[in-house]
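Hi C.,

You asked whether I'd gotten around to modeling the 219-residue construct. I have! Everything is below, sequence then structure, no commentary in between.
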Amino acid sequence: MSRRKLQRFKENEANRNVVQLGKEIFEVIKGNWNALQFENNNPIVVELACGRGEFTVGLARHYHEKNFIGVDIKGSRIWKGSTIAISEGLDNVAFLRTQIQLLENYFSTNEISELWITFPDPFPREGDEKRRLTSPRFLEMYKPLLKKDGIIHFKTDNTGLFDYTLELVEQRDDCEVIFHTHDFYESPMKDIHHGIKTKYETLFSEKGEKIKYLKFKFA
C-alpha cells in the first residue's frame, strides 16, 4: 500500500465526518444520524457509490438545510470529499465507509428522505443483474429506509442500465415515476442540479454520451 493511501486512511480515522469500522459511532449510527452525527433534525440525503464525493459535497454547498451522506467502500476516495467538506466548514456532510449491500445495517426505517444513485457500475451481463444498484434486490432494501414519499434519483450514461431500470420501476405497483429523460442536459431538470458533476459524469459528457436521469418514489 502506498504512503499516500496510508496517510489518507490515517486522516479518515481522525476526521469526524467519516463514519467507518473502528470508530465507536460506527456501531450505533443506525437510526441516529441526526442525533449523533449532524446534531439537528434536517432531512437526510444519501448518495450511493459516491466515489470522491464531488456530488455529495456539491449538493451540500447548495442545500444547507439538508444533511448529506456519501456511501462508498473506498477509503482513499471518500478522503477527498471528507477533507474538502472540512476545509469549507460544511457541517452537513458525512461519509459512510461500507459496502452498499450492507446499507440497512447503518440506516433505520424511514431515516432517509432522498437517495441518489449516480453512475453505478452497469453490470451488463444478465447473470450480474442482482449486482445492479437498481435491481429488485436493492430496491427492496431501499424501500423501508426511505420516508413516505422519499425520492430516488438515478443518473447514468449507460442506456442499457437506464432502460432496464425505467422498465423495472414502471412495472412495479409500488413505484411511481416522477420524471425521466434520456438527455438530462436538454431537459427542464438540468438547472436544479446546479451543474454539479461527478468525475465519471464529466468524462462521459466529454465523450459525447447523453446523460440519463430518472426520478421516482415508492407509492
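If it helps when you're writing up: Residues 3-218 form a domain with the Rossmann fold fold (CATH 3.40.50.150).

Thanks,
B.
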